[in-house]
Write a structure and sequence with these properties.
There is one protein chain. By secondary structure, the chain is mainly beta. The chain contains six helices and 87 strands. Strand 76 and strand 77 form a beta hairpin. The radius of gyration is 51 Å and the shape is extended. InterPro entries: Ig-like_dom, Ig-like_dom_sf, Ig-like_fold, Ig-like_Receptors_ImmuneReg, Ig_sub, Ig_sub2.
Length: 1240
């Protein structure tokens, strides 16, 4: 190994190095942060014998953790995974036995893995205290010298710590701290303070029970020789695997040199013999772990050493961090202006170079010594030639293989005038009755001053430093067209280009309430003066005519004066209204809560612990008092803002009345409710309370016990048996009287008892008298602003009643906190305002008020829940089925918190009070918006808060916008360059509405939250999507809405499907009327694709060239000579991308004569042809038979006379006529003759 480690004297050298480091810190030269270890300590319920019940606590120093690990003797491990992330956990060991003894350490889990283990806790046999550990720590006081802090950790609280020095019989110092550690300070370390020190502890109550001595610690004063110099070759910044030489050089020969790394003094401590007056420390192959702060010193044979060298930072890295370049005063500069380009990198001791795009060589250099907050690259008197893109790079004077990382660039723009700003109006460009409009002029770089111009008035001009201009429309004088400009500090005489004009519209000449009020006041004053003048003239006329006496004149003058005073009072009343007194609430420090816990529910006095909890998060410490005088003990507040006071087994010395206080920075709280411990076998006396009873209404009587798991019983004076009984419901119970009547009046008390037999009872509580009194109706109670506030906000409570001359009382959680006396000066209704100037975390709670007049009180007002937010992490708010809904539909808003058992509240923007409240046993709550309408549109948010500790609430959730659509005409949605785009290309979705100055929202199917919102000046919003990817494919739509209430929104636009792909999706192919050719009929093939603006092509299997092209996708196919039969497919191409064809459709087969259907047709034809042949043959046979008859007829004709021939002809003729009866030969033989004409 090139770096040597010391053998003998290693411990002394490390101590020596730490002291040298202390001297270095005291001179204020450096401050190195080191990772702190977790803290391990012991807690016990038996202060005088802690080994009888031991619990180990492990606390992380700076961050919450989800896992903790306890190690014993480096072999046994105990895991704890708390249900939520916390700072500390406990490991219960119980009574100390031989199996529990050993060496304990703990770790906690952080993002990079397990932390370093804590300091070693050694548990020895029962009856002995753990051996303390001992180490030193340096501080940085402003005075020269070195102040050394010696820390002694005793593992237990309330111990006495003793510091001993070798050679002294008595301790040199002692301390009784409240925690587990004592700090002994040695100011201005001198050689007299050298020596060996140890630390021991003992219990306060048992001064004879001592711990083992700690390991000895030797202090040596250093810094007797001059400091050396430490240099690195080839440089302090190197790549992994490269070699490094650190040279430590001093002025004295023959000394031993030592090198140490401040981040790890235990493992990185090296020493070397010198070569003359210097030593070389070689690193043959650097690693990332070698990065750190190094220093060196030298010492003689007696370990008398030098001062420390200056700290040298060594950085081992393979890539430099990114550099940043900023332009001052702005990247947009005017011609002739000076510009400074400030380059910032995270590497110390490295130079920088300025480059301009398009040029190979750097423009300027900054070496490592000149880089500070005031040195930058300068461009003086810039011209158009200086415009361009600039960047800066690191400049190393030595060779290394470190890669240069990427860098940001600045584009410098040189113009003759600054570019124009943007001008917008809030809340809209339309004036409302009595409302003003704020015009906002904005620009992206620093500005000296903004100017607003009004086109209708050439002389109008307003100036503003922040760009906000408030425009009113009194008598219609605010309507018109406005524009703005600005100027920068570098050139205050040159104004920028004007913004685009913005027109404000609204009703002209309307009368506001202030205008009417001012006119009424002015008219009343004029009438008052005229009346006074007339009265004076009338008195003078009377004096001359009737000579009225002086007394009558005096009375008249008094009447006139009273008239004037009354008129003035009425005028003041008209001007200012009823004056309401405002009372500031001096909020007391919140009262803490005191209770008891035990491990023995059936006999709690065997082991009792008192707990004190404060609702204020700023509590620093708790104090427990007994009988109001003796200070029992103090405990620091934990993360849960509570402290435990273990009493152990209850004895006679423990009996008494206990209460606790909480301490904050500058205040002490009121005492908690008193807890009285009577003695063994008797439970503490509970506390009973109730609100004033009201006839006919429900009344709850609260009985507060002091132990959990107890049962409660309510008694009424005069009755032996309990009126009501309740089981174990926590530490308090509520007894309910459903309807308060006269029969329910009387004295009530309550008791608690153990859950199982034999019952152990508490003493009865103090009696509570319930008397129904006549009461005024409850007052009206509200806050001027929302009851959900942030810390530091101003809150005013208003309590009012129609009754006159009333006094008011303000309550918080049932306790009186402020009062306002009656005022006889103000006639009419009574009211009082209670003011909290700056709300704190502990000011939340349930507030109410009452008023009274002598002996008659009012009913309590309805409570107002004041919630102070920003204490817990914010929840998330989701909408089901989505944030865009149709009118009349239902929407469920789910507020998802982190902790269970909280109360949730739903808020809507522009609404003062929360819309809904819900208490949930889990960590979420569902709020239902039923049959939504236009009024339900807007931004919603939610909070959760605890109801037991001053209503401490969470941060507000991220606002969720709900749009109720269908109230405005739907927009149109287009895409450029087309609905199909290749991955990595840019795309723009254009949503065109029908109303100006609307807010446009882009939606995507399957995504609940809107993708983007825009509020352009015109009718169209362009949603730019750069570098699209495959997941950007989908079905898009858009809506638009008006910002003015109610937030009316449009219908959805027609859906637009977007494909992000290199090849369009395949089309579909169908045949009409079917796929079988009919005789003389054609078939139409219909090719359909998902994209508009395409050209289709039809292909037949076996043919090389495409068959047909079509723009509508219809192809007519005939079957001439059987050429239409076969398999067909189609594809298409976009007109915007003619070289990209889609995938072919699924094949479709057309059949005809050569197909199966044609064979069926041929069989039918054969059958029909066979039938025709049979019929023709049958006819032929009939004709042949008849033909054979003709020769016989001719022979008979020659042998008979003409009469017989006529008969034969007639016979033949009748046979040829259907439906005619034939004369038989018998009739002829009978002599009946019928002559008929014979046709020729």
């Amino acid at each position: 190994a090139i770096l040597d480690r010391p053998g003998e004297g290693a411990t002394m050298l490390r101590t020596f190095a730490i002291l040298l480091f202390c001297i270095r810190l005291s001179l204020g030269k450096t401050s190195i942060g080191m990772e702190s270890q977790p803290e391990l300590w012991i807690e016990s319920n038996y202060p005088q014998a802690p080994w009888e019940n031991i619990t180990l606590w492990c606390r992380s120093p700076s961050q919450i953790s989800s896992k903790f690990l306890l190690l014993k003797d480096k072999t046994q491990m105990t895991w704890i995974r708390p249900s939520y992330k916390t700072f500390q956990v406990s490991f219960f060991l119980g009574a100390l036995t031989e199996s529990n003894t050993g060496l304990y350490r703990c770790c906690y889990w952080k993002e990079t893995g397990w932390s370093k283990p804590s300091k070693v806790l050694e548990l020895e046999a029962p009856g002995q205290l753990p051996k303390p550990i001992f180490w030193i720590q340096a501080e940085t006081p402003p005075l020269p010298g070195c102040n050394v802090n010696i820390l002694c950790h005793g593992w237990l609280q309330d111990l006495v710590f003793m510091l001993f020095k070798e050679g002294y019989a008595e301790p040199v110092d002692y301390q009784v701290p409240t925690g587990t550690m004592a700090i002994f300070s040695i100011d201005n370390m001198t050689p007299e303070n050298e020596g060996v020190y140890i630390c021991r502890t003992h219990i306060q109550m048992l001064p004879t029970l001592w711990s083992e001595p700690s390991n000895p610690l030797k202090l040596v004063v250093a810094g007797l020789y001059p400091k050396p110099t430490l240099t690195a070759y080839p440089g302090p910044i190197m790549a992994p695997g490269e070699s490094l030489n650190l040279r430590c050089q001093g002025p004295i020969y023959g000394m031993t040199f030592a090198l140490m790394k401040l981040e790890d003094l235990e493992k990185s401590f090296y020493h070397k013999k010198p070569i003359k007056n210097e030593a070389h420390f070689f690193f043959r192959s650097l690693k990332i772990q070698d990065t750190g702060h190094y220093l060196c010193f030298y010492y003689d044979g007696s370990y008398r050493g030098s001062l420390l060298s200056d700290i040298l930072k060594i950085w081992v890295t393979d890539t430099f961090p990114k550099t940043w370049l900023l332009a001052r005063p702005s990247p947009v500069v005017q011609m002739g202006q000076n510009v400074s380009l400030r380059c910032r990198g995270r590497v110390d001791g490295v130079g920088l170079a300025l480059y301009k795009k398009g040029e190979d060589k750097p423009l300027q250099f900054l070496d490592a010594t000149s880089i500070n907050d005031t040195k930058s690259f300068f461009l003086n008197n810039v011209t158009y030639h200086d415009s361009g893109i600039y960047s800066c790079h690191y400049l190393l004077p030595w060779k290394t293989s470190i890669k240069m990382a990427t860098h940001n660039s600045v584009e410098l723009v040189v113009v003759d005038k600054p570019p124009k700003p943007s001008l917008s109006a809030w809340p809209s460009t339309v004036f409302k009755l009595g409302k003003a409009i704020t015009l906002q002029c904005r620009v992206s770089h620093p500005v000296l001053e903004f100017s607003l111009e009004w086109e209708e008035r050439a002389t109008f001009q307003k100036f503003s430093a922040d760009g906000d201009f408030i425009i009113t429309n009194v008598e219609g004088k605010g309507i018109g067209t406005y524009s703005c400009s600005y100027r920068v500090e570098a050139h205050p005489n040159i104004w920028s280009h004007r913004s685009e004009p913005l027109k404000l519209m609204g009703p002209a000449g309307f009368l506001t309430w202030n205008y009417v009020l001012n006119e009424a006041i002015r008219l009343s004053l004029i009438m008052q003066l005229v009346a006074l003048l007339l009265v004076v003239l009338w008195i003078r006329w009377k004096c001359r005519r009737l000579r009225i006496r002086e007394a009558w004149l005096l009375g008249t003058a008094q009447g006139v004066t009273m008239l004037f005073i009354v008129t003035a009072l009425l005028c003041c009343g008209l001007c200012n209204g009823v004056l309401t007194e405002e009372t500031e609430i001096i909020m007391p420090t919140p009262k803490p809560e005191l209770w008891a816990e035990t491990n023995f529910p059936l006999a709690p006095w065997k082991n009792l612990t008192l707990w004190c909890r404060s609702p204020s998060g700023s509590t620093k410490e708790f104090v427990l008092l007994k009988d109001g005088t003796g200070w029992i003990a103090t405990r620091p507040a934990s993360e849960q803002v509570r402290a435990a006071f273990p009493l152990g087994a209850l004895t006679q010395s423990h009996t008494g009345s206990y209460h606790c206080h909480s301490w904050e920075e500058m205040a002490v709280s009121e005492p908690s409710e008193a807890l009285e411990l009577v003695g063994r076998d008797i439970l503490p006396k509970p506390v009973i309370s109730a609100s004033p009873p009201i006839r006919g209404q429900e009344l709850q009587i609260r009985c507060k016990g002091w132990l959990a798991g107890m049962s409660f019983a309510l008694y009424k004076e005069g009755e032996q048996e309990p009126v009501q009984q309740l089981g174990a419901v926590g530490r308090e119970a509520f007894f309910t009287i459903q309807r308060m009547e006269d029969k329910d009046e009387g004295n009530y008390s309550c008791r608690t008892h153990t859950e199982k037999r034999p019952f152990k009872w508490s003493e009865p509580s103090e009696p509570l008298e319930l008397v129904i009194k006549e009461m005024y109706p409850k007052p009206f109670f509200k806050t001027w602003t929302s009851p959900v506030v942030t810390p530091g906000a101003r809150v005013t409570f208003n309590c009012s009643t129609p009754h006159q001359h009333m006094s008011f009382i303000l309550y918080k959680d049932g306790s009186e906190i402020a009062a306002s006396d009656r005022s006889w000066a103000n006639p009419g209704a009574s009211a009082a305002n209670f003011l909290i100037i700056s709300v704190g975390i502990g000011d939340g709670g349930n507030y109410s008020c009452r008023y009274y007049d002598f002996a008659i009180w009012s009913e309590p007002s309805d409570p107002v829940e004041l919630v102070v937010t920003e204490f817990y992490p914010k929840p998330t708010l989701l909408a089901q089925p989505g944030p865009v809904v149709l009118p009349g539909k239902n929407v469920t808003l789910r507020c998802q918190g982190i902790f269970q058992g909280m109360r949730f509240a739903l808020l809507q923007e522009r609404t003062q009070a929360p819309l809904q409240f819900q208490s949930a046993s889990g960590n979420s709550a569902d709020f239902l918006l039923h049959s939504v309408s236009a009024e339900d549109s807007g931004n919603y948010s939610c909070i959760y808060y605890e109801t037991t500790m001053s209503n401490r609430g969470s941060y507000l959730s991220t606002p969720l916008m709900i749009w109720v659509t269908g109230l405005l005409p739907k927009p149109s949605l287009l895409v450029q360059p087309g609905p199909m785009v290749a991955p990595g290309e840019n795309m723009t979705l254009q949503c065109q509405g029908e109303l100006p100055d609307s807010t446009f929202v882009l939606l995507k199917e399957g995504t609940q939250d809107p993708l983007e919102q825009q509020r352009p000046n015109g009718y169209r919003a362009d949603f730019w999507m750069p570098v699209v990817r495959g997941e950007d494919s989908g079905i898009y739509s858009c809506v638009y809405y008006l910002d003015s209430a109610p937030l009316a929104a449009s219908n959805h636009s027609d859906s637009l499907e977007i494909w992000v792909t290199d090849k369009p999706p395949k089309p579909s192919l169908a045949a009409w009327p079917n796929t079988v050719f009919q005789l003389g009929k054609d078939i139409t093939l219909q090719c359909r694709g998902p994209l508009p603006g395409v050209e289709f092509v039809l292909e037949q299997e076996g043919e090389e060239a495409p068959q047909q092209f079509s723009e509508d996708g219809d192809f007519i196919i005939n079957n001439m000579e059987g050429k239409g039969i076969g398999n067909y497919s189609c594809s298409y191409r976009l007109q915007a991308f003619p070289n990209i064809w889609s995938e072919p459709s699924d094949p479709l087969e057309l059949v005809g004569a050569a197909g199966p259907a044609a064979q069926e047709c041929t069989v039918g034809n054969i059958v029909r042809s066979s039938l025709i042949v049979v019929v023709v043959v049958a006819l032929g046979v009939v004709l042949a038979i008849e033909w054979k008859k003709w020769p016989r007829l001719r022979t008979r004709g020659s042998e008979t006379d003409g009469r017989d021939q006529t008969i034969v002809l007639e016979e033949c003729n009748q046979e040829g006529e259907p439906g005619t009866s034939t004369n038989s030969p018998s009739s002829t033989s009978q002599g009946i003759s019928v002559e008929l004409p014979v046709p020729i």
